[in-house]
Amino acid sequence: MKTHPLRSVLFVCLGNICRSPLAEGVFRSVLEGERKLQGVLIDSAGTNGYHTGETPDDRSILVARQHGIDISGQRCRQLQAEDFHRFDLILGMDRANVAAIQARCPASATAETGLFGEIALGDASQIPDPYYGTQADFERVYRMVLKASRGLSKRF
Ligand code: 4NP
Q1: 140 catalytic per annotation
Q2: pLDDT (tens digit, 9 = 90+) per residue, 125-154?
Q3: Rounded Cα distance, 10 and 111, in Å
Q4: Is 129 a catalytic residue?
Q5: What is the pTM of this model?
Q6: At what angle are helices 19-28 and 58-66 packed, to 10 degrees?
Q7: Atom number in ligand 1 closest to CA 141
């Protein structure tokens, strides 16, 4: 594990429309709003490309807005090989995401990869896919992402 402050992080889920856009927005809000730390590269991507170019899911946009965060300007993109050299940290929301990240990880990668909950909080918590759920599931994802973001911010 790197001990110096990290400079960049990529949040990854399956579709890059529900969980990882929220993580990108919430983590930026924690770093810049709560910690007053600027200049960190924060982005998100999906392991699949089904929604490339789309805005985040309306339910993610809504729950973010309810907590004072605007993620409507984000556009979905798929995880790319270059990401493993551009980012210090690449974090999956659940273990399936982490497996998909590691399956794509080139041998020359410089990024540390892992589970968001494990790297941020030292526990095994996974952030569940809310796509087929209700707005209440998105609120639950928001709260998990906020807790993990506050933990992760200590490494920046
Ligand atoms: P996400 O949620 O991985 O949190 O963005 C999903 C979004 C879309 C799909 C699955 C999960 N999908 O199957 O289209």
Answers
A1: no
A2: 999 999 999 999 999 999 999 999 999 999
A3: 10
A4: yes
A5: 0.97
A6: 30
A7: 4
